[in-house]
Amino acid sequence: MTLVKTKIGRRAFIRNTGLASGGLVIGFSWLASCKMTPEQVNSLPDEWFELNGFLKVGDNGMVTIMSPNPEIGQNVKTSMPMIVAEELDTAWKNVIVEQAPLNTDIFTRQLAGGSQSIRQGWESLRMAGATARHMLKEAAAQAWGVSADEITTEDGVLTHEASGNSAGYGEMASAATNIEVPEEVQLKDNGNFSIIGTDKKNVDGPKIVTGQPLFGLDVYKEGMLTAMIVHPPAFGMKFKSMNAESVKSMPGIKDVFHFEAYPEDVQKTWSDGGAIPELVAIVGDSTWECMQAKKALDVEWEEASDLESTSYHDQALASLLEKPQEEPARKDGDVDAAFAKAAKIVESTYSAPYLAHNTMEPMNFFAHVTPEKAELLGPIQTPEFLEQTLVSRLGMPAEKIDIMMTRMGGGFGRRLYGTFAVEAAAISQKMNAPVKLVYSREDDMTQGTYRPSYKVKFKAGLDETGNLIAWHVRGAGTNDDLIFENRFPAGAVDNYLAEKHSLQTNVTTGAWRAPRSNFIAGAEQAFMDEVAEAAGKDPLEFRLELFDRAINNPVGDPEKNDYDPERYAGVLKLVKEKANWGSESGKARGVAAYYCHNSYVAQVLELEDGGDMPRVDKITCAVDCGIVINPLAAKNQIEGGMIDGIGHSTYSALTFEDGRPQQSNFDRYRLMRHSEAPKNIEVHFVDNGIDPTGLGEPSLPPAIGALSNALYQATGRRYYNQPFINDKPPLVG
Amino acid sequence: MATFTININGTKQEVDVDPSTPVLWVLRDHLNLVGTKYGCGIAQCGACTIHLDGTATRACMLTVSSVGNSEITTIEGLSEEGDHPVQKAWLEVDVPQCGYCQAGQIMTASALLEKNPNPTDEEIEMAMNGNICRCGTYTRIKKAVKLAAKS
């Protein structure tokens, strides 16, 4: 067993902290409104005993585990409590999971982003379970007059074999609350798990399939008003004037007003990215009445800055690709000299458009702000940052602001930017009433914080024997400089040059699932295929040769490289074996691998025969994310990530004319549908017992490369410009 | 405003709303049935799918005044105990990620199986194509529909 100090999240182990701070136990009536399953009702204990901020044990042995992080569909509401339950050593069937509210006294990093929930929560979640288990054992030891070291636990039962004593956790729960919180606890050895590594179904599954209220948009409260906003129709425009009088008298409308969501003196955090300072609010009794008023409202806007079009973004990014970076992001060897003596040079340019996040549940938030306190409830990936902004925006100390997270109808990075929650709070404060702000799909898609538009140019040099001797990458993005200069193939090529540029634009951008990687991986892996072809080598073996170089004789300081070449090569070897790479499948195949969010993913993708845009028949995927907490859900994330990457790179784009988004709903913004989805997906995990890393994002980026490479095999055309459905590449060779 | 009596999940419900109000918002804002989701408002995403006399229908563009005596079934009324074969298959396969679109997917799938108890892969895809899943659970959805068809 591993002995660890309980220092992380120490305050979580001071019992009743939650009671003192008021955040944990003063639940919103929302929680009570969520109907429990009959089994849960029947098994509820008479009394709960809180052993630490993460969990309480009932007198009948049931355990409630708080899931600290926001749930956006990445399944942390199941997998994080699994980790607590593992170290507590209770049976999973006896666990009830509750979403924790924002409580910075108890929890650390209550954030859904960067695929970090499990990786960064791993230690404190284990400690929470192990500490409670220790306290239960101590309580039993005192009751039975034996040494705690001789007591074993399994499935929520304490046993002292020598004396023949045995008790359920529920019987010792009350006494355990009087046990000192230990300074150190023993954790289980990795590999000695009974819950971690087993398939556990989504804890919200029964509520999801029966349509019970779970999401922010499902919040309805006594006396609640509905609000909608009107934002400028184009980036670069701002509010000028409006005629609201006739709209105010429409049925069900309470008020229509212009307001400053973000006055100049508000202290913003990065989480307020994309904030629109001035908006119009429509407040009424019901959503449909607000929508009708919104249609009827006549608002005049004025130009505040440039009105940019997609043609401008494309030209400006293209000219940045012609411009060297003054101080290159990374430079190994001498690329110019290497290209001068290269036997073959390959050069290609790739591009991708802006993308909207398009969570299926549009932005929304409930807020009830009174002079005494603020209650907020809704879908937010960054509740702690939201609280910081609200302190400034509402002029209210953090103690008076309660934030509760609902389950989210998708995140993908969009709900990292809680401007909609700030808007809801501002509207509630002005109305002095409980308000639910609802964005229409059109509001949502045209609001901003998009995935940036990108372009990248690669140039590679090969010697006479097909060895890669030079690699030059120059990338540019809107409000984002795209290149991770220390990622592969840095460290694997003698002469390497990485340059990057950012084009400042007024179309707001933000993190979109696997930021930057969601474009650069596909481009890099498609280019790698072109280079392998020029070298006359098998594309998978070509990559493995480069990893061998990075393992055995790395270029530059290997510490600088942002990847572990052995783990990288490991997923490629696993996918090679599982997909039977090298044998004739009779189908067009592409391979790709990528590392991001601390995890490694490789894929072999096979296409059906026929057409310019043939359908994916099968993807074989190998993943190294260390310990897999919940394989059933982990595979779901990997499957979804690949479909996300393939769908968006094939079909989706957001374009602009004079600052106006040209797509505002799913009629013109195309997302992948059932008949276009991959038919079969197979996921394999590397079993290495390493502490767990990210899983929500890493499968998306390489899928685009694997698709490009398979498309080339199927069609003889190289696809360079996303969305591929609009690309008209010439036949190669 | 006008009074409408509509038949929802086997119960007659009276609502006083503007005749143009879509059934989606009648269910959500007036009858506390929030399982039917808002996704696009233009019948492109399928999140609001209900059964209108047994046929999968988008509630976001179905005005309350056009319903008449037709029978509406929502996700809440699909089964009493959440044990419709499609619901059970969804849980067995562990389909949902975020879960937001799944009520609509289940309503479309259950209407399909009612009319075609043994659909081919192509028939499933054609029937389900109006339902977007942004999380990409398409392969699991198809697996669950086939599992439900077997039971």
TrEMBL record, chain A:
Keywords from the UniProt entry: Membrane, Transmembrane, Transmembrane helix
Occurrences of domain Aldehyde oxidase/xanthine dehydrogenase a/b hammerhead (ranges): 210-305
Keyword Transmembrane part of the UniProt annotation: yes
InterPro entries for the chain: Ald_Oxase/Xan_DH_a/b (IPR000674), Ald_Oxase/Xan_DH_a/b_sf (IPR036856), AldOxase/xan_DH_MoCoBD1 (IPR008274), AldOxase/xan_DH_MoCoBD2 (IPR046867), AldOxase/xan_DH_Mopterin-bd_sf (IPR037165), N-heterocyclic_Hydroxylase (IPR052516), OxRdtase_Mopterin-bd_su_IorB (IPR012368)
Pfam families listed in its UniProt record: MoCoBD_1, MoCoBD_2
Bilayer-crossing regions: 12-32
UniProt name for this protein: Molybdopterin-dependent oxidoreductase
From TrEMBL, chain B:
TM helices/strands, residue ranges: none
UniProt KW Iron-sulfur keyword: yes
Any matching Pfam family: Fer2_2
Highest taxon, organism lineage: Bacteria
Keywords: 2Fe-2S, Iron, Iron-sulfur, Metal-binding, Oxidoreductase
PANTHER family in UniProt: BLR6218 PROTEIN, OXIDOREDUCTASE WITH IRON-SULFUR SUBUNIT
Stated name of the protein: (2Fe-2S)-binding protein
